[in-house]
Fold this protein.
Amino acid sequence: MNRPDEETGAGPAALDAATLQIHHPYEPPSGFAAVVPAVHKASTVLFRDAAALRARSWKARDSYSYGLLGTPTTYTLEQRIATLEGGLHCALTSSGLSAITLVNLAVLKAGDEVLLPDNVYGPSREQAHKLLAGFGIGHALYDPLQPQSLRAAMSSRSRLVWIEPPGSVTMEFPDIRALVETAHAAGALCALDNTWGAGVAFAPFEFGVDISMHALTKYPSGGGDVLMGAVVTRDPTLSERILHIHSVMGLGVAANDCETVLRSLPTMRLRYEAHDRAARDLAAWLATQPAVRRVLHPALPGAPGHDHWRRHCSAAAGLFSLQFDPRFGHAEVDRFVDALRLFGLGVSWGGPMSLAVPYDLTAMRGPSAAMQGPLVRLSIGLEAVEDLRADLAQALKIAFGC
Ligand SMILES: Cc1ncc(COP(=O)(O)O)c(C=O)c1O
């Protein structure tokens, strides 16, 4: 677009060199094609004329109004994530947690109640306590392995049920269909945190969920260097409500971050399968180590919810947790984590580097929770599996003497 040229007919020579760096008449030839989509950066979106500017709408996905609300780059990534999830509509947000916030604020209003699994992603529980409660939105917890506990926890105020397969940190895999049916029977919408499944392990909408939320920070980014979230739906009315709240909350995403995710998506399934293979190999081996009491990996027979995982999933993410022999306390567990050389110490997952995080379940979940004491969560990266096994073996020896 070059309005001075169009309107006055003035050529480049009539304009100052500084002006020409902003209003240059050159247009590259059309017809360029490349493997990756072009990246469009914009806060301001330009309009042909005043009528087009006046007619702009935050709703329209076939036009543009403001960089915050959509560019060709964000629309392209939205469509790819919607396809990945088996949905139709997508809103991108600045992190997985802000995608959770978007769902909560789009669905719930004062007087409503949201149901969370008792093993839910920690900041989500904190959000219910600290943010939603202040807006007059209540919450209740349910046991994800007992659909009847969801039924018992629901009330006439319940509007939204979150499902997290498997639960953060303790990795219990729920019966998704039973939870969705229970939620719907009580008149509530169902949102599923699909960060672990990533659109590879299972298809969330086949279980009847209304909303799939995905922290693109993990496998879709795959680099440990981007924060982004997505909210995917199939229902146009629900999607419009979500996009409206998205627009009034100002939850835009940066073009460079979209570019990174768009570049990583074509390799995601291969990476996911490699993470899965290595994690299952190491999880099975760790289960044979004398210092390890229990390996919490949903694909391992005996893990909580393993039968549900087997019925629901064709794959598993590279994430699992370890509980140690009860004679070992936090000091030994910290020594184990500190002795690891290839595992970085840090939260998040889905990137190339293997990561370890020590947790205290008693402090996180309270003394009445089913699982107690120290636990280490491992995110298995893309290093050679034998190097990771050797690293884990030497750390077990240093920390536990076996
Ligand atoms: C299951 C799950 N959901 C959501 C999130 C939030 O994603 P983000 O880190 O992008 O806010 C995380 C982050 O670790 C997570 O593990």
The chain has 15 helices and twelve strands. The pocket of pyridoxal-5'-phosphate is lined by residues 95-97, 121, 168, 193, 195, 215, 217, 227, 229, 348 (CB under 6 Å). The chain has three domains: 1-33, 54-265, 268-400.
